[in-house]
Structure formats: structure tokens, C-alpha cells
Amino acid sequence: MFVSRSQVVLHADVDAFFASVEQRDDPSLRGRPVIVGGGVVMAASYEARRFGVRSGMGGSRARRLCPQAVVVASRFGAYVEASRAVFAVFERTAPVVEAVSIEEAFLEIGALARTNGAAHAIGQRLRDEVRDEVGLPITVGVGRTKIVAKMASRAAKPDGLLVITPAQERAFLHPLAVEDLWGVGPATAKKLHARDLRTVGQVAQLGEAALKQILGKAAGRHVHALTNAIELRPVQPNRPPRSFGAQRSLGRARGAPLSPDELDDALARLADRVATRMAKAGYAGRTVVLRLRFGDYSRATRSHTLPDHTIAPEPILAAACALAAAARPAIERQGLTLVGLTVINLVDLSGGTQLELTGVQPPGRC
């Protein structure tokens, strides 16, 4: 039973957020596979996910997997406004809200949830209010810790609600594959698999000291906490990020030439990725930073500040292309092995910053 002295966490996550906003605003898209973004998939509706389409996938591959999908351009302005409306429901539901992204948050409701039934009722009321007021489906997981609440919402998707009590934690978590646990990445999972540790339950049986020997001190402590549902960091208001970035290793031999088309393609994908991350986190940026690593392992950094803050990929890409053009002589002379794109000078869109964001199209090329 949940009691008022204990932490009780909701993890609330709008289902296929960008795609759900498009289906909400265009009734002809409802029930159909929808892909948001052309060059790189920013979001896919659950109808498209059934065919294997996933966020971050190249657009051409997504269309091969699901040729019947409707591909729509991103509309960041609509997503920001929908996010503000969703978070208004979050803020009045719980005294402490920790945003994870533009459509996802942890809510601490311990003082309100004295019983399992009360926790379920709060989660259901939140779902009802988001659907009624914002018109979007949302899944809620409830648990004693953030990891349990997160995994509960994953299990309840799409458009569901699942409450995991402390007595149910082991039965819920232990059968899961270690790579499915939120916070366990591919490298960590590979090390655990090498020791024939494949389920959360198997890992949970090891002591923290043994995990530190296998994974290192920090990772061992982290995985021990995750698999035993130990809360390392309770729900708390967010610290604002300083930047959003992405990079691409070009995998070239030292000094190998790079064609303009190849660099243009790399920059377009990075601009798309960075813009998507900023939009999901609810931030806009103004200064674009291009990082280059040449064939001789020397590095260069160039930056450009835009006239206005943006979360659209086009101005980010335009600035990156201009910076890359200025560095073209060095690229041709020394070759290029890595290109990175970062946006800094951020503003929080939840504070009411107004941007010209309608009619955003895929970023295209330089």
C-alpha cells in the first residue's frame, strides 16, 4: 500500500506525441500510419510502428517498411502549444513535476496517494484531463520510484495506466531483459550478457560490489540501484540544459577526401536530429556551433548566432552550411573524420517565448 510518507511517482508520456498532434489536427489521418519528418523520422504513429518504423530512422527506410504511410512535415509551433497545455495539467495534478521531454514528465504525488486506489484515481484523472482538454492520448505508470513508474508506463502503452505497488516490484521487474531496463545502454548490456546475465532478476541477485567489478564503480552502483528499484535521485524540478547537439563519425581513413554532397547530407541529418531534440525538450536556441575533426586529428570549431531563437531545422542547417563552406579549403586539404553540430544560447519555451514556427518543412540540403 502507498502511504503519505512514501514517494509515489507518476510517469506520464503522451503517446507518439508529434504524430498524435498531427492526427488530432487532421481527422483524415486518424487510424492511419503517419510519419512526421521526411529526411529523418521525428515521430511515427503506432499504426506505422507496427511495420517497424521508429524515431531516428532514415526517411527512405521508413517508407520502404511502410509504403502506405502518410508523411507529413513537422509543425513545431503546434507541438509547443500542445506541450504547454499538457504540462498545465501536470502542474495542477502534482506539487513536483520533473520534465523529461516536451511530452513526458515524472510527477511526485506521495502526499496525495494514501492508497493504491488513490494513486490509480489520480493517474486516471490526469489521463482524462489530457484527453478532454488537449485531445491527446497519454499513458501513465505509477510506482514507488522513477524507474518503476517509467517501466510501468512502457508496459501500459499505448493509452494505458498501470500501477505497480512495492509488493509487486520484483514480479514486475525481474523477468525483464536487462537491455529493456530504462537506463541500461547497449554497452552495459553487452558486459552483462558476457557474464550470462540476461534478466533484471539475475542482475538484482548480485551485490553492488560484484556489479562494480563488472561495470565499474559508477555504472555498477547505477545498475544495482535500477535492478533493485532503489531511488538514487527523487523527482525534482529540472536544471535547464546548456546545449543540444549531435555528431557523426565519417569513418574515413586519415586524409580521405569528402565530397560536398556527403558533407551536405551529414549536416542535414544532424540539423534534423538537433532540432528534434530541442523540440522534445521544449527549448529553442540561437547560436549554432559546428565542430570538425580533420584527417590529421586536428580540430576546428566555428559558430554563428541567428537573429532569433528557433527550434526549426532550416535555420540551423543554413548556419551550419555557411560555417562548413568557410571551412571547405581545410576540409579538402586535410580530409574530415567527424562533424558535430550543437545549438546553444537557449530559451525555455514553457516560459512563453513566442517563435515563428508554423509551416516548418524538412531541412533539405545545403
From TrEMBL:
<dbReference type="InterPro" id="IPR022880">
    <property type="entry name" value="DNApol_IV"/>
</dbReference>
<dbReference type="GO" id="GO:0006261">
    <property type="term" value="P:DNA-templated DNA replication"/>
</dbReference>
<dbReference type="InterPro" id="IPR050116">
    <property type="entry name" value="DNA_polymerase-Y"/>
</dbReference>
<dbReference type="GO" id="GO:0005829">
    <property type="term" value="C:cytosol"/>
</dbReference>
<comment type="function">
    <text>Poorly processive, error-prone DNA polymerase involved in untargeted mutagenesis. Copies undamaged DNA at stalled replication forks, which arise in vivo from mismatched or misaligned primer ends. These misaligned primers can be extended by PolIV. Exhibits no 3'-5' exonuclease (proofreading) activity. May be involved in translesional synthesis, in conjunction with the beta clamp from PolIII.</text>
</comment>
<dbReference type="GO" id="GO:0000287">
    <property type="term" value="F:magnesium ion binding"/>
</dbReference>
<dbReference type="GO" id="GO:0006281">
    <property type="term" value="P:DNA repair"/>
</dbReference>
<feature type="region of interest" description="Disordered">
    <location>
        <begin position="234"/>
        <end position="258"/>
    </location>
</feature>
<feature type="binding site">
    <location>
        <position position="13"/>
    </location>
    <ligand>
        <name>Mg(2+)</name>
    </ligand>
</feature>
<keyword id="KW-0238">DNA-binding</keyword>
<keyword id="KW-0239">DNA-directed DNA polymerase</keyword>
<dbReference type="InterPro" id="IPR017961">
    <property type="entry name" value="DNA_pol_Y-fam_little_finger"/>
</dbReference>
<feature type="domain" description="UmuC">
    <location>
        <begin position="9"/>
        <end position="185"/>
    </location>
</feature>
<dbReference type="InterPro" id="IPR001126">
    <property type="entry name" value="UmuC"/>
</dbReference>
<dbReference type="Pfam" id="PF00817">
    <property type="entry name" value="IMS"/>
</dbReference>
<keyword id="KW-0515">Mutator protein</keyword>
<dbReference type="GO" id="GO:0003887">
    <property type="term" value="F:DNA-directed DNA polymerase activity"/>
</dbReference>
<dbReference type="GO" id="GO:0042276">
    <property type="term" value="P:error-prone translesion synthesis"/>
</dbReference>
<keyword id="KW-0235">DNA replication</keyword>
<dbReference type="GO" id="GO:0003684">
    <property type="term" value="F:damaged DNA binding"/>
</dbReference>
<dbReference type="InterPro" id="IPR043502">
    <property type="entry name" value="DNA/RNA_pol_sf"/>
</dbReference>
<keyword id="KW-0234">DNA repair</keyword>
<comment type="similarity">
    <text>Belongs to the DNA polymerase type-Y family.</text>
</comment>
<keyword id="KW-0479">Metal-binding</keyword>
<keyword id="KW-0808">Transferase</keyword>
<protein>
    <recommendedName>
        <fullName>DNA polymerase IV</fullName>
        <ecNumber>2.7.7.7</ecNumber>
    </recommendedName>
</protein>
<keyword id="KW-0548">Nucleotidyltransferase</keyword>
<feature type="site" description="Substrate discrimination">
    <location>
        <position position="18"/>
    </location>
</feature>
<keyword id="KW-0227">DNA damage</keyword>
<dbReference type="InterPro" id="IPR024728">
    <property type="entry name" value="PolY_HhH_motif"/>
</dbReference>
<dbReference type="InterPro" id="IPR036775">
    <property type="entry name" value="DNA_pol_Y-fam_lit_finger_sf"/>
</dbReference>
<dbReference type="Pfam" id="PF11799">
    <property type="entry name" value="IMS_C"/>
</dbReference>
<keyword id="KW-0963">Cytoplasm</keyword>
<keyword id="KW-0460">Magnesium</keyword>
<dbReference type="GO" id="GO:0009432">
    <property type="term" value="P:SOS response"/>
</dbReference>
<feature type="active site">
    <location>
        <position position="104"/>
    </location>
</feature>
<dbReference type="InterPro" id="IPR043128">
    <property type="entry name" value="Rev_trsase/Diguanyl_cyclase"/>
</dbReference>
<dbReference type="Pfam" id="PF11798">
    <property type="entry name" value="IMS_HHH"/>
</dbReference>
<comment type="subunit">
    <text>Monomer.</text>
</comment>
